[in-house]
Design goal:
Elements: E1 4-9, H1 16-30, E2 37-42, H2 48-54, E3 61-64, H3 81-86, E4 91-94, H4 97-102, H5 107-119, E5 123-128, H6 132-136, H7 140-151, E6 161-165, H8 179-197, H9 199-204, E7 206-210, H10 215-222, E8 229-232, H11 239-249
Helix pairs in contact: 1-2, 1-11, 5-7, 7-8, 10-11
The structure holds 2-phosphoglycolic acid.
């Protein structure tokens, strides 16, 4: 039985003060309501410290939205995995489609970042997903396969990895993949991981769904056999909505 995992990706939202308030609201609303489910929040780098202090002792995990593949040096605007560990993060999101689309991330740089993050002891959420054009031209499975294969190249241990399937056409658009559409891709990912890492590792891997998850559709998505929680964007910025989604994943 895989433990479900729900992570709020706050993206480029909230000042330090606003992040602190949202984290406090979450704790107040969540209480003990997330038994049987792992919960994380991913504020901006700037707000990691304040949000991290606000969630201290609550069991909520502190997650970063990205990390660089070098420890330090002349990489203006970047933050390293080592710095994230020191800042109290337990996990990092890597290869989000917005990073791929707007900041030139490729499967090669995603792979480098994952390796570095794992070597620094961080858990990794690897994001994969096809665009609408790719889905319509029938290459969804091929795109996902190359993102998984190349993203995980030369990585032998995936016990600290979560994969998030996020169809690009469903992110922030209000269009959710149907639970059947999502399940189909999740099963494809698990089958592929079984080929690469064996059945046991594939059975243990958590695969989150992301893309317009809301309180109204979370339970149906999370009920699918290969959907192990969610990576939540827009709805994670509202404490009540995020808590409702966490409850849908809890038992
Ligand atoms: P969304 O974003 O829930 O706003 O669609 C999901 C994500 O990008 O992780």
């Amino acid at each position: 039985m895989r433990t479900k995992i729900v992570v709020g990706n706050w993206k480029m939202n909230n000042t330090i003060a606003e992040s602190e308030i949202l984290a406090q609201e979450l704790i107040a609303a969540l209480g003990e309501n997330f038994s049987g489910c792992e919960v994380g929040i991913a504020p901006t780098f700037l707000a990691l410290d304040a949000a991290g202090k606000a969630i201290e002792g609550s069991g909520i995990q502190l997650v970063a939205q990205n990390c660089h593949y070098e420890n330090d040096g002349a990489y203006t605007g970047e933050v390293s995995a080592r710095m994230l560990t020191a800042a109290g993060c337990s996990s990092v999101i890597i290869g989000h489609s917005e990073r791929r689309q707007y900041f030139g991330e490729t499967n090669v740089t995603v792979n480098l970042r994952i390796k570095k993050a794992l070597s620094e002891g961080l858990n990794v959420i690897l994001c994969v997903g096809e665009t609408l054009a790719q889905r319509e031209s029938g290459v969804t499975e091929a795109i996902i396969a190359s993102q998984v294969r190349e993203g995980l190249m030369d990585i032998s241990d995936i016990s600290s990895l979560v994969i998030a399937y996020e169809p690009v056409w469903a992110i922030g658009t209000g269009k959710t993949a149907s639970s059947a559409q999502a399940e189909e891709v999740h099963l494809h990912i698990r089958t592929l991981v079984a080929e690469l890492y064996g059945k046991e590792a594939a059975a243990a891997l958590r695969i989150q769904y992301g893309g317009s998850v809301k309180p109204s559709n979370a339970a149906e998505l999370f009920a699918m056999p290969n959907i192990d929680g969610g990576l939540i964007g827009g709805a994670s910025l509202n404490a009540a909505d995020f808590v409702a989604i966490v409850k849908a994943a809890s038992h």
